Amino acid sequence: MAMAARIRSTYPLFHRVFRSDFSFHTPRSTIHQTLLCSKLSKNYSTASPEKDEKVKVPLALFGGSGNYASALYLAAVKGNALDKVECELLDLVKASKNSQLFSQFTKDLSVPAETRVKAINEICGEAKFSDLTKNFLVILAENGRLRHIESIAKRFVELTMAHKGEVKAIVTSVIPLPPQEEKELKETLQEIIGQGKQVKLEQKIDPSILGGLVVEYGQKVFDMSIKTRARQMEKFLREPINFGSI
């Protein structure tokens, strides 16, 4: 919370940087962007040969966001800064959602790379981010990938949870579950998933399901909502009756 407050305090500074530097533009060639991606892989995905054999991503992630998240994960593990980097990324994502200007800034590719880098350096400095997180965000800024920061952070959290042996389970209900029901549901899921994994329960409120629960974890979905039951009943009632079989 304190870190998020520090990020919010940088908004006036961000306004100044953004407005003063937006007047110039330096094109970024495809070759230069490729070199920067190679730099990311070199700086964050490798260390000594001995360490490379020991540090591996716990999940195989694909796509641009997955590649960036995996590279950052390797660097964070080697730097013993996994929790700190995760906290900083999530704080940045949360703060960006509270600032329309910053959100627009990260998505606007017409903003010069120099402006993006300068703004990120200033914001990370004011928020007292670690050098690892700051350098990673600078590379995203240079490559025009800041617009993917939310998806990168999401994939990074997937890696940190796998690293800790955690399994995220999302339970959707109409109203928040009472503590005792939440406890019982978590214990039931823990029994299903088994030992060696720790269930991390996240509640989600959705009045549209009308009642009941929808539980999701991994690739599995258990839909016990009244909405789904009503649809199934409606489908059953609409099916023609074969009187020949009676």
UniProtKB/TrEMBL annotation:
InterPro entries reported in the protein's UniProt record: ATP_synth_OSCP/delta_N_sf, ATPase_OSCP/d_CS, ATPase_OSCP/dsu
A GO MF term: proton-transporting ATP synthase activity, rotational mechanism
Gene Ontology CC: one annotated term: membrane
Keyword Transport: yes
KW rRNA-binding (keyword) present: no
SUPFAM superfamilies assigned: N-terminal domain of the delta subunit of the F1F0-ATP synthase
Superkingdom of origin: Eukaryota
Compartments, as annotated in UniProt: Membrane
Main location as per UniProt: membrane
This protein's UniProt keywords: ATP synthesis, Hydrogen ion transport, Ion transport, Membrane, Transport
Pfam families: OSCP (PF00213)
NCBIfam families reported for this sequence: ATP_synt_delta
PANTHER family membership: ATP SYNTHASE DELTA CHAIN
Subunit structure: F-type ATPases have 2 components, CF(1) - the catalytic core - and CF(0) - the membrane proton channel. CF(1) has five subunits: alpha(3), beta(3), gamma(1), delta(1), epsilon(1). CF(0) has three main subunits: a, b and c.
HAMAP family from the UniProt entry: ATP_synth_delta_bact
Sequence similarity: Belongs to the ATPase delta chain family.
Name by which UniProt lists this protein: Delta subunit of Mt ATP synthase
Protein source organism: Hibiscus trionum
Source species taxonomy: Eukaryota, Viridiplantae, Streptophyta, Embryophyta, Tracheophyta
